[in-house]
Amino acid sequence: MFNIVTWNINGIRSSQQNLKDLFDSLGADIICLQETKITRDMLDETTALVDGYSSFYSFSRKRSGYSGVATYCKNSCYPFQAEEGLAGTFNAHDDKIDFYDNVHSSFTDEGLRALDAEGRCVITLHKFKEEETLLSLVVVNVYCPNAGENDERLPYKLEFYRALNLRCNDLLSQGYSVIVLGDMNVSHRLIDHCEPEDVTNFSKSPSRVWLDGFLYEGGGKFVDSFRYLYPTKEKAFTCWNTKLNARVNNYGTRIDYIIISNELTHALQDCIIMSDVHGSDHCPVKSSIALELIPSTKLPALCTKYFKEFSGKQLKMSTFVCKRTLTSVEQSNEIEKESEGSEPKKMRLSMKTTKQQQSSLLNYFSMGTTNSVKESVSNSNLSCDTSKLKESSKNSENSKSVLGTTNSFSSASAVWKSVFKGPPPPPLCNGHQEVCVLRTVKKKGPNMNRQFWACSRATGHSSDANAQCNFFVWASAKR
Known about the structure:
Site (Transition state stabilizer): 185
CATH superfamily of the largest domain: Endonuclease/exonuclease/phosphatase
Largest sheet: 7 strands, mixed
EC number: 3.1.-.-
CATH class of the largest domain: Alpha Beta
Number of strands: 18
CATH topology of the largest domain: Deoxyribonuclease I, Chain A
Number of domains: 2
Radius of gyration: 35 Å
Strand content: 15-25%
Active site: 143, 183 (proton donor/acceptor), 282 (proton acceptor)
Catalytic activity: Exonucleolytic cleavage in the 3'- to 5'-direction to yield nucleoside 5'-phosphates
Number of helices: 13
Region (Disordered): 332-353, 375-404
Distance between the termini: 63 Å
């Protein structure tokens, strides 16, 4: 038995928990993460080298802090081979799985590079025993592109799906068992969505049509492990809109999958959605599979353990700026230089003495302040008697001037308050008569970055009276 987990972590550096403790709490032998949001220069040692695990990364080569996937394997599940990308475009080493015939023949070189350039796939090859026969298992960790039905990224998303299908078929043709898991960015059936807008055309979207054809029920060679075990389970969601606090009412979608090739269904024991695990807008999904994995005796070249910056082969910037202790040879050289002539030493001593004797600018000001204080004290003693005579005559005049000044300030303040009334108070929503919250439109279009008022409650199903009501008003509208 081994456990495998997929989790869109939404930024691996945003995790507040120690990675080893986090991984151990998941109870998995292989952990596949998506949306790590780091490039290689951002990867630090504590993230790359987690005690008890080996890690394999694919980074985005187009944007920093974007996309990215990583596969962590326990030491008991060392893979035999590993590579990044669906097409192997950036695999410089020879230790790769290979078999890209259909993929390479179906795309141009430019198209292949575009598929792999966003860091959306890591593939690892493992071995398992079945009736004393050693067989191969390939784990394909993917973060599929996100795109709406009319989005300009939709063609790229569909090309990625097509390449994924071709590569998996190439691997199956070699006799390998295959597990495809990750954020597929598509909810398959109506049961996998909290409340779709267009129910009539839901199944006709290009992404769902592709997933239908990829799965066994639509003529493909793979099985959705969760729906295979729980075909009618409702509200089994893996992703929620955290900005709308949608997780409170479980108002989400199921877009994270563990999909296995058909011949592995006999070994599938369970598949659970770990909705109690927080830290991202997604939750982990874990499958238990009755296979005995055999660890490799040597890690593949893609492993972060072999990165120059973590293997001691590449000097870090800290080695150039840290304090260094002189060796005995260097110390003797310094002594010889001193003994060659006494003049430089004398000059240094005289300079040091001069430096000590010279007053700082701060001392100059402090001395000046002290002298001025002394002067003012002596002058005040001389004029003390005359000031007392004048004091009583000025008291009445001062009180009048202060009173006049106060009145002028109060009248000016009233004028300014009449001009600047400040922002109006937030409106109350119609459904609950509660104070609304201010939100900003993020979707591209004529209203992008425009602000509006909405109900402050967590979003939920339209039939849920305790969920957010449909109150909406533009912040710029007069009230």
